[in-house]
């Protein structure tokens, strides 16, 4: 999730309302003097005439005549009535935002936590739950945050009229129906509608939200293709469309979003190859494309510009052929690499041993051949190494040398070599692996001899 907008300032930040001709009128009697200058926040803090009367009593001087008490009370009533009128006018002057929220409320069919209980015209909408506004008139909505309120219903496209809004977070609710049309929101930077039950397609008009930096529609039931017009969002940093029913190819135009640092399209029904242009995203740190139907090979120059990539997840696809031999050299900051459940073949690149920050390396359930590189022993931060369900070989002492090298992986907790073509006796060096090792799997091989 992304940065949250600043909270709406308290009522003391409201502008001061002053009635003046040439000079502020004053009540004068002897040495007593009161300027008639009252802030809107001051007046709106009183809930009744009785509270204003109590305030006047506290402010009264012990020597002050009773008639002056009445004048003071009358002045406060008149001024606060005026401020209430002006503040009420603020609502009507900005009826677009007001009606946008009221239309949104009409679409709510269940509000079990009472999140919208104070959404009435008796209260200024800037004080409604979840709403933050600008601090100066005309008050405009800057953010709407109703995350995790168990709200049910449909999201009204009337929210597309909140033209000053910068952040909209309706995540972790039970909304149904299509995505709202928000294409006119030029200032929108954060849009979180994830973890609902939304369906339908992603509107092309979303590409008009030119300030959008954080977009999360994950964990819904969205269908159709990813709109190529998302490639127009030049400020986009975070894109999560995972766990939906999206189909078609990954748009090449996503490769033109030079500010992208996070992409997750996991658990959809995407097809075709990984766009070569994604390899141009030099700021990319997280690329998660697992559990789709992607096919083809990874171009050997794909990782040349992805030097700061930390998480690469391509598991459970139909990708194949050999891995780029220099993959470890080009990804020095890699922390997790998950390529399991594909059709990769050929040798395991020894350059992976140069990705010294690796903590998880999962190459299981592929068709890799040859020996396990001893360079993996340089991965001192490695906690999980899963190489099961391949065609990896160890037929002699040289083939088993990798076990001795893995002694240097002092953080290793899980090692799986099951269902390969390992043969012969298990080397005694296996007893010198990390003292943190909790799981060692060797089933499905052709091992013989005694267990060390």
Quick structural overview:
With 452 residues, the protein is α/β, with parallel strands linked by helices.
Major pleated sheet: 14 strands, mixed
Give the N-to-C terminal Cα separation: 48 Å
The number of strands is 32
Gross morphology is elongated
- Please give the count of helices: 6
Q: Which strand order spans the largest sheet, edge to edge or round the barrel?
A: 6-7-9-11-13-15-17-19-21-23-25-27-29-31
Overall pLDDT, averaged? 85
Helix content: 10-25%
Strand content: 25-35%
Explained architecture:
The protein is α/β, with parallel strands linked by helices. The protein has six helices and 32 strands. The chain has helices at 40-44, 49-59, 66-93, 95-106, 327-330, 401-405; strands spanning 16-18, 26-29, 32-35, 37-39, 108-110, 131-133, 141-145, 152-154, 167-169, 174-178, 190-192, 197-200, 214-216, 221-222, 238-240, 247-249, 262-264, 269-272, 286-288, 293-296, 311-313, 318-322, 336-338, 343-347, 360-362, 367-371, 384-386, 391-394, 414-416, 421-425, 439-441, 446-448. The strands form five sheets. It has a 14-stranded mixed beta sheet, with no helix packed on it. A nine-stranded parallel beta sheet has the order 16-18-20-22-24-26-28-30-32, with no helix packed on it. Strand 2 and strand 3 (32-35) form a beta hairpin. Helix 2 (49-59) packs across helix 3. The longest helix has 28 residues, at 66-93. It is elongated, with a radius of gyration of 32 Å. The protein starts with 15 loop residues before the first strand and ends with a strand. Mean pLDDT is 85; it is low at 1-49 and 79-92.
């Amino acid at each position: 999730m992304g940065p949250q907008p600043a909270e709406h300032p308290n009522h003391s930040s409201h502008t001061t309302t002053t009635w003046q001709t040439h000079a502020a009128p004053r009540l004068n009697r002897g040495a007593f003097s009161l300027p008639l200058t009252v802030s809107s926040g001051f007046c709106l803090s009183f809930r009744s005439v009785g509270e204003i009367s109590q305030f006047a009593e506290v402010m009264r001087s012990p020597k002050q005549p009773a008639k002056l008490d009445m004048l003071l009370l009358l002045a406060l009533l008149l001024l606060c009535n005026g401020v209430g009128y002006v503040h009420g006018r603020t609502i009507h002057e900005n009826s677009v935002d007001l009606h946008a929220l009221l239309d949104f409320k009409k679409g709510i069919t269940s509000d079990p936590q009472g999140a919208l209980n104070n959404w009435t015209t008796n209260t200024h909408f800037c004080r409604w739950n979840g709403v933050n506004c600008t601090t100066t008139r005309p008050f405009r909505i800057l953010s709407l945050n109703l995350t995790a309120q168990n709200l049910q219903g449909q999201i009204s496209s009337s929210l597309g009229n909140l033209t000053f809004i910068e952040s909209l977070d309706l995540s972790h609710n039970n909304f149904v129906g299509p995505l709202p049309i928000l294409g006119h929101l030029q200032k929108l930077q954060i849009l979180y509608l994830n973890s609902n039950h939304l369906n339908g397609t992603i509107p092309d008009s979303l590409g008009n939200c030119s300030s959008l930096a954080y977009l999360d529609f994950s964990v819904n039931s969205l269908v159709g293709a990813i709109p190529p017009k998302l490639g127009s969002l030049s400020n986009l940093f975070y894109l999560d469309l995972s766990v939906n029913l999206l189909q078609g190819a990954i748009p090449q135009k996503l490769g033109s979003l030079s500010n992208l640092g996070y992409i997750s399209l996991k658990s959809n029904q995407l097809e075709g190859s990984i766009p070569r242009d994604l390899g141009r995203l030099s700021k990319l740190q997280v690329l998660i494309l697992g559990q789709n139907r992607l096919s083809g090979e990874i171009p050997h120059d794909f990782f040349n510009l992805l030097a700061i990539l930390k998480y690469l997840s391509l598991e459970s696809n139909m990708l194949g052929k050999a891995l780029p031999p220099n993959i470890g050299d080009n990804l020095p900051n890699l922390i997790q690499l998950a390529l399991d459940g594909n059709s990769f073949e050929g040798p395991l690149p020894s350059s992976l041993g140069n990705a010294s920050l690796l903590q998880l390396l999962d190459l299981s359930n592929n068709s890799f051949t040859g020996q396990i590189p001893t360079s993996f022993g340089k991965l001192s931060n490695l906690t999980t190494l899963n190489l099961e369900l391949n065609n990896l070989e160890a037929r002699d002492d040289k083939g088993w040398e990798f076990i001795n090298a893995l002694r240097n992986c002092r953080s290793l907790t899980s090692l799986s070599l099951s269902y390969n073509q390992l043969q012969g006796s298990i080397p005694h060096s296996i007893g010198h692996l990390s003292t943190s090792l909790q799981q060692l799997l060797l089933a499905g091989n052709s091992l013989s001899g005694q267990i060390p």
